[in-house]
What we know:
alpha+beta
Amino acid sequence: MQPITFRKASERDIPVVLYFLNQWAHTSGQKHQPVANEQMVQEHLFDRPGYMEIVFVIQEGEEVGFTQYTRRFSFMQGHYTILVQQLFVLPAHRGNGIGKALFGYLLHHAHAQDCNLIEWQADASYCNSTYFQSLGAKYKKHEKLFYLQVALEEKPLYQNQKA
Length: 163
C-alpha cells in the first residue's frame, strides 16, 4: 500500500465534500442523492466549529476516502462518543487497508479527545461481517449500532500515519 496521510476538510474543499457525498450515495445504492449544497456544507461544517468534522485520506496526492463524524457527551458514561455518519473509500481504492486506516485515524482522534466510544450504523448486511469484527468492533443489536471501545488509559492502537 502506498503511504497515506489524513487532512481535515477546509472551506476550499466544499466541492470535494459534495463529490464524496454523491459518490457515497451512488455506490451504496441510496435511493436519493444527498440534498447537501455548498451553502449547507459551509454552514454546518465551517460556520459551526466543532459541530461536525470531515477528514480525507490522501494517497499519492489524491483524496481517496473520507469520514464524516460528530461528537456527543454522555453524562451517564462521563465521556464523549464519536458518531461516524459516513466512512467511504472510492471503489478503485478498496481492499488496500484505507478503510481500516480511517478507523485507525478515528481511534487516534478519539483517544486524543477523551472519547471512550466510536459508534456507527451500517447496512444490515454488515451485521455478521468479519470486516468490522476484524477492527475489534462489537454490535449492539438492540440499537443497531457498531462500536469500538477506546482504551483511554492505553496508547492508541494506530499511530504510524500522519494526521
